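Final report, closing paragraph on structural work. Over the funding period we assembled a curated collection of sequence-structure pairs, and we close with a single example.
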Amino acid sequence: MPAIALLGFFAILYSLFYLLYHFIKKMINKERALSKKIFYPSLIGGIIFFIVGISFLDTGVQAKLDDEIEQNTKLTAENNTLKLENTKLEKQITDLESEIKETASNITEYENNLKSLEEEKKAFSSEKDSLNKEISDLTTKNTSLQNEVDSLNTQLASKDTSTSTAKENSNQTTASTSSGEREDFANCTDLRGTYPNGVPTGHPAYVPSMDRDKDNYACER
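Its predicted structure, as stored:
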């Protein structure tokens, strides 16, 4: 269709040039007449072809224009949709920023609590070490006291044994004294064979020479 419009345009242009040519020639030859068989068919035909071609050309342009308008409408709708989504996204971003701030505040609080718990843990650990040391010291003291008690029990048992032996010797001495008989022994070894723990002063077997430490007890162990 653009070719028909172009053909009509050239036909009109040809008729105009022919008319101009005719006027130039007529100025030279006034009797020259315009050829109606050339001018009018080319002019009228050119106008018709041009109008027909232009009408079809306008139809194509209008269709393209309608398409462009339709696309523009779609793009406008999409733009509005994107604006709405952008508004929603901005709101979500604002909400997320608020959540981030709140989360950061919570994290700071948790970190402070954690530091406080660590300090309490250190304090408890120090107190635990102190108590363990006290327990260790008390255990050592208890062991020492138990050893002293065992030693005292041993000494007490030894004293009880010595007391019992002394009583036996005293009874023997009393018995010997009451009988009035003197006992003679060659030395302490001989005397201990009869009196294992020795004899006190006044005993029939007591001899001052056997009481070397002069404690009035001869041949004691």
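The two ends are 154 Å apart (CA to CA). The chain is about 80% helix and 0% strand. We thank the funder for supporting this effort.
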